[in-house]
Specification:
Shape: globular
Distance between the termini: 36 Å
Helix content: 40-55%
Radius of gyration: 22 Å
Strand content: 15-25%
Number of helices: 12
Structural class: alpha+beta
Largest sheet: 5 strands, antiparallel
C-alpha cells in the first residue's frame, strides 16, 4: 500500500460509524472528546464549527470537517446558540438527539460520525495533522471527495439492499480522500513536514519503496540510487522532511507493520511475521520488536487478543 493508506491501516480497530441528522434553528450540538477521529459533513444548509480557543468557522453545504485527534467540538446554527451534549456509545460513535420534525428555510442536514483508531503507535503522518481540518466544497475541485460525500448522503437518506456494506466502504474512502486533499493542499506551503515529504520526488519515492516492500534489504545507498541522489544528499533530505534518518524510519515501520500483522492474524507463526518485515532470524526480530514496543511479539499478540475480547463482550453486553 501507499504511505497514507498504510498510516490509516496500522491504527484501525473497528468499523466507522455515521449518522444523518436534520436540525432546524435554533440548535447546537456539542461532540465530546473521543479516542477515535471524528468527522462532520454539512449535506444541506449551513452552520458554525465551534472549537475552543479558535474563532467560529462558517460551514456551508458540502463542507467536510475532520477532527483527527478526537478533541471536543460543537456545531450550531449560530455561535450564540445553546449547546446540547451528544450521547456517545461504547464504541465511541455518537448518537445525536432526535431530529426535529419541523422543516423550515433554516433546515440543516448533517452527517456526523467517527473512525475507530488506536492512537498508540500512530504514524507521525497522522500525528502531525492539525486539531481540525476544514475542506470547503469547491465547484470544479475535489471532485472525488465531493462524489463520495454525495454517495454517503444518498445511502444514509435512502437505505436499500447493500447499504450496510456500502456505508463503511464509502466512509473509508472519504477518510483517505480527506487526507489526500489536505496533504496536496499543504505540500507547497512549507519546506518540511509530511506534506512536503510526500510531495518530494526523492523522499516520496523512498517512502513508497519502504512501505511497498518492507522485507527488502534496503540500505541508504540503495534507496539513494532509486531516488537519483547521492547517499549524503538523500539521507539529509529524508531526515529533514521525515524527522528521522532513513534506516531509523525503516526499522520503525517494520515493527509497526509487524504489530499490525500480530493484531490481525492470530495464526501467523512468529518466524513468518519476522520474514514479512525483513528479518531472517526470529531472535533478532524478537529483540527489535521488544525494543520498540517494550514486550515480546507473543505477549503483544496476547494483549491484543485480550483487548479484542473485552471490546466484544462490551458490545454484546
Amino acid at each position: 500500500m501507499d504511505v497514507v493508506s498504510d498510516a490509516v491501516a496500522t491504527i484501525r480497530t473497528g468499523r466507522p460509524h455515521a449518522a444523518r441528522s436534520r436540525r432546524t434553528a435554533p440548535w447546537g450540538l456539542r461532540f465530546p472528546a473521543a479516542r477515535g477521529t471524528g468527522f462532520h459533513v454539512v449535506l444541506q444548509g449551513r452552520c458554525w464549527l465551534l472549537f475552543e480557543g479558535r474563532d467560529p468557522v462558517p460551514l456551508g453545504a458540502g463542507d467536510v470537517v475532520l477532527v483527527p485527534h478526537g478533541q471536543e467540538i460543537a456545531l450550531a446554527d449560530s455561535p450564540d446558540s445553546e449547546l446540547v451534549d451528544v450521547a456517545r456509545e461504547m464504541d465511541d460513535s455518537w448518537t445525536p438527539a432526535p431530529d426535529p420534525v419541523a422543516a423550515t428555510d433554516e433546515l440543516t442536514v448533517l452527517m456526523c460520525g467517527s473512525y475507530q483508531l488506536e492512537r498508540a503507535g500512530a504514524h507521525p503522518l497522522l500525528a502531525e495533522l492539525p486539531a481540525f481540518i476544514h475542506l470547503p466544497r469547491r465547484v470544479g475541485r475535489r471532485a472525488a471527495l465531493n462524489a463520495v460525500v454525495d454517495l454517503l448522503g444518498d445511502e444514509l437518506d435512502q437505505r436499500r439492499p447493500g447499504t450496510d456494506a456500502a456505508i463503511p466502504a464509502l466512509l473509508d474512502a472519504m477518510l483517505l480522500y480527506i487526507l489526500r486533499t489536505w496533504y496536496q493542499d499543504h505540500a507547497p506551503r512549507g519546506p518540511g513536514g509530511w506534506a512536503a515529504a510526500l510531495a518530494d520526488p526523492a523522499v516520496g519515492s523512498a517512502l513508497q519503496h519502504m512501505h511497498a516492500e518492507p522485507a527488502t534489504a534496503w540500505t541508504v545507498e540503495r534507496l539513494s540510487r532509486r531516488a537519483g541522489l547521492s547517499r549524503a544528499a538523500f539521507s539529509r533530505r529524508f531526515t529533514e522532511l521525515v524527522g528521522r534518518p532513513p534506516m531509523t524510519y525503516l526499522s520503525w515501520w517494520r515493527m509497526t507493520t509487524a504489530g499490525r500483522i500480530l493484531r490481525s492474524d492470530d495464526d501467523a507463526p512468529l518466524q513468518s511475521v519476522a520474514e514479512r518485515v525483513g528479518y531472517r532470524s526470529e531472535f533478532a526480530f524478537n529483540r527489535a520488536f521488544k525494543r520498540e514496543f517494550g514486550v515480546s511479539p507473543g505477549a503483544y499478540r496476547r494483549r491484543g487478543a485480550a483487548s479484542q475480547d473485552r471490546r466484544s463482550r462490551d458490545r454484546s453486553a
